[in-house]
Amino acid sequence: MEIQFESVQLGDQGLTSISTSCPDLQALYLSRTTDCTDDGLSAIAGKCKKLRKLHIDAWTRFGIRTIGDDGVLSIAQKSSHLQEIVLMGVPISVQTLNALASNCRSLERMALCNTDTLGDAELAFVAAKFLPLKKLCIKNCPVSELGIAAVGAGCPNLVKLKVKRCRGISAASIGRLKLRRRLLVVSVDEDTPMAFDSGAEEEERQRGAERRRGRDGNPNHHGLLPGNASGTTANAICTSMSALFLKSKFENALHLGRGRRGERRHDSSISNDDIIFQ
To answer: Given CA atoms 80, 50, 224, 232 in this order, what sign does their dihedral have?
Structure first.
């Protein structure tokens, strides 16, 4: 089962209701949901043991962050099947990174964005400890060429590195990384001019531009949220201020859905090609 919430006044009570009603939840997307805190995310971690994908785009009101490091730590400690995690605007500590590396042995895709708690030391920890990692996205974080060098020396299974708005990273450091890891695809945003010094890399950049143009023309595209939900995946998407209605109707809708459980067998490969990892 996959559930998406965007710009919803959901709250911890809503997350708790989901945790008790959806123990088979495998993918959860929270994009700017208000009144959700570490307590609500901890409820998900405690009861949704099959969780494989977690995307959080934290929404800040009056300078107070809604979901923080403690909530992610609870996920790391209890969601051993986690394969993909995207954190935007969520602080993350070495303690939480260590829990992810130790307990989530199937974690292959990770994005850490818009946080000043991810520096060179934390990126070096990721490089040393996240051995199964295949795709890594770093956006708007205070990392430098030291962090990039650590990635080049670690993450042995990494096939794609995406770097955006990290001003401490130089073209020279990216060049050295490419020389050291020739099979690693490195994607750099247009705001950070980097030299693509081979035809294959230029071709990769052109393909990326074509994919972006294709998505811009797709009316079903929703940014970070997946745009290609499989027919075998149960989806619940809420994009309006309807949390109270959701709360009152959620269990009834879920009860009806169980009658078609045979039709909702989950595809073993939740999309690996979400926009943030392309």
So the answer is: positive
- Give the residue-averaged pLDDT of 200-223: 51
Reading the block at residue 183, the tokens are 């099979």
CA 10 vs CA 33, 64, 68: distances in Å: 6, 16, 16
**Of 143, 128, 131, 30, the residue nearest 87 (C-alpha):** 30
Could you tell me which residues come within 8 angstroms of residue 262 by beta carbon, excluding any fewer than 6 positions away? Answer: none
Burial readout 241-251 (b: 16 or more C-beta within 10 A, e: otherwise): eebeebbeebe
Reported as a single tens digit per residue, the pLDDT across 56-68 is: 998 766 656 589 9
Question: Do 194 and 173 form a contact (C-beta atoms < 8 A)?
Answer: no
Q: Look-up: residue for tokens 């990635």?
A: 151
Which stretches of the chain are DSSP H helices? 11-21, 38-47, 69-78, 94-103, 120-129, 145-153, 171-180, 199-216, 243-258
Q: Parallel, antiparallel, or unpaired: how do β-strands 109-113 and 84-88 relate?
A: parallel
pLDDT tens, 78-94? 999 999 999 999 999 99
Whole-model pTM: value is 0.73
Please say whether the beta carbons of 74 and 45 come within 8 A.
Answer: yes
